[in-house]
């Protein structure tokens, strides 16, 4: 009897795996089709200065709105693109498109672009970044490349070479989702980053009585002593924004300040800037 149950379970898993494989293949086909038709787009989310409330930069986020499949989130299709070997061409497009939009529409607003670990490890990344800057004319100091710890797990030698070649171009490097990996601290010792982005799971815990405020404060002090900027991700409330500002965070990103949108964020007009100096609260009205 136990044996039969085991076989039943094995069959169940087999069917389950088959279903997942089929769904993945369907998603991959739909993605290839979308790519041919130029169906991917970018959304931009503002990142504001914690001190002045001004929009200082924004993050480019991939969007896939499919007429048949509907809207597919990047958490779903980026892994598919990685497995299908499509992330390198997609990533190159994201880089060029983000730089172009920042150059044409975003006077004074820096642009952050996410890099997949596969894109980072593939040959030619540095050339791709250099070409995107050259073709669009965007000054390198306006481009920030966001990488996650999964990039750093790879071979130390080639990772540091790539990172220093990128820095030599004049672009900045941000460590994304900080605190979610296994050895966030040791990476800070091994590599130099210009910015760290505190993962939104820490921000979400502010005011809920956990340890996240202590951890965020410590990270900010550490970052300061290593001469890095700190951005907090996932800021959803005025209370969180105020707390992060008091703790000395440099910049803030989250739904409270603005959701990702297809329009490139605009710098505030002088009137808005004045309002923003009075505190962070008016920003919400201005950004929506
Ligand atoms: P990420 O780089 O950490 O991007 C931030 C994510 O947090 C975005 O999700 C953004 O919409 C979301 N977010 C921003 N503010 C808030 C908030 O206040 N509350 C909550 N709950 N979420 C907030 P999104 O756009 O779904 O992207 C998810 C991930 O997909 C990104 O995480 C990034 O890892 C990846 N991704 C997006 N675009 C690209 C890309 O062009 N290339 C690569 N390789 N990965 C990308
Ligand atoms: Mg990011
Ligand atoms: Mg992040
Ligand atoms: Mg993330």
UniProtKB/TrEMBL annotation:
Positions of the EAL domain: 24-274
Keywords: Membrane, Transmembrane, Transmembrane helix
Protein name: EAL domain-containing protein
Residue range from the parent sequence: 523 to 810 of 833
């Amino acid at each position: 009897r136990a044996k039969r149950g085991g076989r039943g379970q094995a069959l169940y898993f087999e069917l389950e795996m088959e279903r997942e494989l089929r769904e993945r293949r369907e998603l991959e086909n739909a993605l290839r089709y979308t790519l041919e038709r130029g169906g991917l787009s970018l959304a931009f989310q503002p990142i504001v200065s914690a001190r002045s409330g001004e929009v200082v930069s924004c993050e480019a986020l991939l969007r896939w709105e499919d007429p048949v499949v509907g809207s597919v989130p990047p958490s779903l299709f980026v892994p598919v693109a990685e497995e299908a070997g499509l992330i390198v061409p997609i990533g190159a497009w994201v880089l060029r498109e983000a730089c172009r939009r920042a150059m044409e529409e975003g006077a004074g607003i820096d642009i952050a672009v996410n890099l997949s670990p596969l894109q980072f490890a593939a040959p030619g990344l540095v050339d791709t970044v250099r070409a995107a800057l050259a073709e669009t004319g965007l000054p390198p100091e306006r481009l920030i490349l966001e990488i996650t710890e999964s990039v750093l797990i790879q071979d130390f030698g080639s990772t540091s070479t790539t990172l220093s070649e990128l820095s030599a171009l004049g672009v900045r490097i941000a460590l994304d989702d900080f605190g979610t990996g296994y050895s966030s601290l040791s990476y800070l010792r091994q590599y130099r980053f210009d910015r760290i982005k505190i993962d939104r799971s820490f921000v979400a815990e502010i005011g809920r009585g956990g340890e996240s405020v202590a951890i965020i404060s410590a990270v900010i002090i550490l970052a300061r002593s290593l001469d890095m900027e700190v951005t907090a991700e996932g800021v959803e409330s005025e209370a969180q924004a105020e707390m992060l500002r008091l703790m000395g965070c440099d910049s803030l990103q989250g739904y409270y300040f603005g959701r990702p949108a297809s329009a490139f964020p605009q710098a505030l007009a002088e009137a808005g800037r004045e309002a923003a100096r009075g505190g962070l609260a008016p920003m919400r009205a201005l950004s929506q």
